Amino acid sequence: MKAGVLENVNDIRFLNVTDPVLEPGDLLLRVKAATICGTDIRVYRGQKTASIRYPSILGHEFAAQIIDTGGHSQFSCDQPVVVCPQFACGQCAYCIRGAENLCRNLQAMGYEIDGAFAEYVRIPRHAVESGNVFSMPENLTYEQASLAEPLACVINGQQLVNVKQGESVLILGAGPIGLLHLMLARQSGAHKIIVSELNPLRREAALKAGADLVIDPTTDDLKSITIEATQGLGVDVAICAIGLPVLINDAVCAVRSRGRISLFAGFSAGVKAELDVNAIHYNELSVMGSFGLTRRHFENALHLLASRTADFGWLITHRYPLEKISEAFAMAEHGQAIKVAISGN
Ligand SMILES: [Zn+2]
Ligand SMILES: [Zn+2]
After folding, report:
1. 240, 172 in Cβ contact below 8 A?
2. Which CATH superfamily, name and number, covers 154-289?
3. Which of 46, 65, 90, 297 has a CA 20 to 30 Å removed from the CA of 212?
4. How far is the CA of 144 from the centre of ligand 2 (A)?
5. What is the third-level CATH fold of 2-147+312-343?
6. Which residues on neighbouring strands pair with residue 81, listed in sequence order?
7. What is the pTM of this model?
């Protein structure tokens, strides 16, 4: 089959590789659309190396058509499906507590096993049996359905930081994840949403996605503007959607007392930030992380996409055939694009 293969750090190529080898009960899918995630870029650039193999096939945000049902009677050939790409064991202490995204034996597509930047992808039997494969809602395109994974991660993040109706929210970064946070906060009834972003195209996109106020952190004073926009208090919630550790200090300055901060973006291994711990102490701030998704978040995301209460599809601004995988990665990395899809296979 044709595939975009990560040969090494900074080296992704379009190659012919052997077809996936199926074990009994495995599902074989033909990938119809896959989108490039910020994490894929970090892996490509060697900023994320944990559980990465070389060579391997990345891609965990995708929608596909069933080629081989593996004998699972709930599925049929040619059926459009989407896959929650984190496969949990269901038995460890975290799975038992419902936090399957923190599973001790987590297996993730695009990392531990080959992902969707390929013509075909294999879904292991245990992932089919655990209910990680969802029927694709009829009113979605394959590209739109590919957004279920990042949207599910964003839903997890906002549930943890508990964005509530009428609250003010600051989002640091208006890349695809920041924009998804913005649109979801809007759906959750956030009252005032402020977005800080260097890139003018992305500031424009933030306005289009419904931001009340956009800030250019190179010229605007984020702290004073945020305080002023919230009757002198600061925002209820700040979400870091860029993997720059130092930005936590912007978040700490911008939230009110009892404010909540989500460290949503992943950071490069070993990079640390200095932090004003007293500001957290005296103002009773909460700082929380957010990682991945559960099947429940994935299902919620699919329902939200299918409900069409908001249009998320416009976030996909660029499309490439699999043959142009390295151009697609270059486009996703540079700021002209929001979300880049590999589609049309
Ligand atoms: Zn992703
Ligand atoms: Zn587990």
Report:
1. yes
2. NAD(P)-binding Rossmann-like Domain (3.40.50.720)
3. 297
4. 29
5. Quinone Oxidoreductase; Chain A, domain 1 (3.90.180)
6. 64, 135
7. 0.96
Q: What is the pLDDT of residues 118-158, one digit of tens each?
A: 999 999 999 999 999 999 999 999 999 999 999 999 999 99
By three-state DSSP, how is residue 307 classified? helix
Cβ-proximal residues to 59 (8 Å cutoff; 6+ apart), any chain: 4, 31, 34, 36, 40, 109, 110, 115, 116, 117, 118, 121, 342
Question: According to CATH, where is 3.90.180.10 located in the chain?
Answer: 2-147+312-343
What six digits make up the tokens of 62? 């995708």
Which regions in the chain score pLDDT beneath 70?
Answer: 344-345
DSSP secondary structure code for residue 18 in this structure: P
pLDDT at 345: 62
pLDDT of residue 267: 85
Ligand of minimum distance to the alpha carbon of 97 = 2
**Residue ranges of the chain that CATH labels 3.40.50.720:** 154-289
231 alpha carbon – ligand 1 mean position (Å): 36
Q: What are phi and psi of 265, to 5 degrees?
A: -65, 150
